[in-house]
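FAQ

Q: What does a record look like?
A: Structure on top, sequence underneath. For example:
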């Protein structure tokens, strides 16, 4: 006779878990962390999972002496450690508030042992280059859940380097363009808040590479062409195109510091 017992129903007939008040071993914590990270990965990728089922499986395998409630609490500890690291955590496990710093440190160390590199891209940053790298890395993945974001982003101040620019050079280049992009010949996309056609001035040899602030190194571009100079995969070819198209430009050699 087939004595199939539904796995969830079988739970009801099991002997109650032996109450274990002893501190969790590293192996036990690691089991909980691994289960947590699997759920987090699923959540971030938009895959379905069941917290209750994972809890049940842990009690049926690696954590036979722990109760459902104490496993839930550990999961909240893990959320607290991830929250501390500014990494994403499972929304269903609110970070436990009453977690001691020793426990948190241990959790962080064990989390690192379990491999949390895949969460690095989610850590907020104020550095725009790092931000761009993280965004690219995340765009390559399937983002299943809509991120919560930050309602009060932290403000940081940083030292920026600027160049003293000649207003007449900029005005002359814009005037010479006659409201038309020198890259693609399209008309300025809109009228700027100064009432004049909106174009941006770009230094073909960047000032940061010791390019000159002169009319022979500056072009008036629509925002699309300007972005293309800085951010496109074909920016080197586009630069050559500008040199070929605009007779006034003089090629400058980049110089190092
Ligand atoms: Zn253009
Ligand atoms: Zn530019």
């Amino acid at each position: 006779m087939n004595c199939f017992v539904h796995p969830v129903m079988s739970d009801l007939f099991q002997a109650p878990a032996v109450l274990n008040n002893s501190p969790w071993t590293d192996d036990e914590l690691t089991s909980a962390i691994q289960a947590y990270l699997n759920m987090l990965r699923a959540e971030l990728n938009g895959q379905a999972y069941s917290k209750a089922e994972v809890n049940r499986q842990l009690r049926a395998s690696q954590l036979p002496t722990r109760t459902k409630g104490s496993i839930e609490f550990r999961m909240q500890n893990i959320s607290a450690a991830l929250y501390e690291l500014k990494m994403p955590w499972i929304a269903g496990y609110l970070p436990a508030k009453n977690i001691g710093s020793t426990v948190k440190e241990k959790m962080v160390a064990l989390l690192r042992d379990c491999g949390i590199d895949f969460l690095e891209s989610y850590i907020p940053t104020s550095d725009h280059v790092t931000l761009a790298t993280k965004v690219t890395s995340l765009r390559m993945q399937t983002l299943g859940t809509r991120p919560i974001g930050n309602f009060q982003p932290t403000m940081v101040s940083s030292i920026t380097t600027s160049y003293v620019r000649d207003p007449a050079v900029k005005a002359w280049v814009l005037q010479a363009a006659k409201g038309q992009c020198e890259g693609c010949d399209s008309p300025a996309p809109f009228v700027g808040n100064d009432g004049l056609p909106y174009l941006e001035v770009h230094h073909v040899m960047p000032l940061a590479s010791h390019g000159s602030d002169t009319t022979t190194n500056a072009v008036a571009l629509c925002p699309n062409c300007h972005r293309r100079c800085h951010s496109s995969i074909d920016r080197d070819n586009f630069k050559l195109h500008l040199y070929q198209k605009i007779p006034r430009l003089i090629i400058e050699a980049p110089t190092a510091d």
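Q: Is there anything notable about this one?
A: The first strand starts at residue 200 and ends at 203.
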